[in-house]
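Quick question, first post here. What does this chain look like in 3D?
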Amino acid sequence: MITISGTGYVSTEVKVDMSKKGTRYIRFRLRTKTSQKDVDGKPVWEFFTVFVGGKNDVAFAEKYVRKGDLLEFAGTWEPRQYKGASDYQIKADHIGKAHSDYDAPSKTLTKEDLTPPKPKPPVFNDAVDAHEETFEDQF
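> Answer (accepted):
Ran it through. Tokens below.
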């Protein structure tokens, strides 16, 4: 068992699954930068499937983790458990939102970080509305 931690981007939609024992868990793919470099000297990106269990982490992931989010994670790294799989999985002991700056150290989340933004009021474009034809204009 290898312990792994780091930062990565959520690359798929978050899915809620049930285990054979009846407990809920969250599953999503994570794209993370590795320390390896390709032939052009650019960092190599690795994809992992992340499994999140435990009441608190499942509730957090279900509410706040979305495709494209930058997350910090920690857990155990292991080969896939089922036949024909080509990548690895992480059983996460911890997940959380990370800084938008990829290489910055992660911060502790506050209540404001977890509060979704208020919806903006609709914007009306008077110039477009003024040129719309009315029923009477057609005859």
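The first strand starts at residue 2 and ends at 10.
Helices lie at 55-64, 111-114, 126-130.
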